[in-house]
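Problem: given the chain below (280 residues), write out its structure.
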Amino acid sequence: MIVNTETIDEFLARRSADVEDAVRTAAETEILPRFRHLAQHEVDQKTGPHDLVTDADRNAELYLTGVLGALLPGSIVVGEEAVHADPAVYAAIQGDAPVWIVDPVDGTRQFVHGDDGFCTLVALARHGELLASWTYAPARAQLATAVRGAGAFLNGERLHADPPAAGRDLEVATSHPDFTTQEQKRALLGLRTDGVAPRPCGSAGLEYLAVARGLLDATVFSWEAAWDHAAGLLLVEEAGGAHLTLTGEPFRITGGNALPFTTARDEATARRIRGLLTTS
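Solution.
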């Protein structure tokens, strides 16, 4: 079993390409063949009509669980579908072992409706610290990667979020109202102000990628599920961005965050958005 961060760094230096290959293979064998070809029996609801799961989600996660666990002996895979089947699996994020955090199809609703705005998300963490991430949008031929302290990249090109240009409205992707509490709805009302242009979010992973690319100014999300956030948070951090909860602390993948929280292209924008959320 990997026992310290230094040896995980060595693992990433040796095997990051293998992780990338696993992510690509999962998409090419289990996801893309079903894109715009899903049969009715391959789509199910989990908690309701806005929370869908497909055979692509299930099979891609099973593939990644097997390959990632074998690549890093002693590691644990926490996948969205595994946690849905057994919520106790989620506790591994707080344990001592290295953890792979997997969302096999982020943006399942878009995937089901034939929209190319979906991606596969994989992150590696230990003791709550994000170490590496992979964001793959196969229908758009985009692979974004990040390693802590080594930068963020999209298709091999380094990403720089950079501060927003002065004098224009901040574009902010926010949680859909169906997934917010009444208190969170009140907080989100703070974004309805001059200088801010909020809109509903799509795939969380692709919204984070847009922030890292400097194409979106910020996100505001109201839920904690690590598979939606882990890969993107590291991507944005390594591109120069920042994230803050309502208490002014960075978001923790181990949970217990004051929600909603924001992720932005730079620290100043994150603080501005947080201020709007707390003064509504």
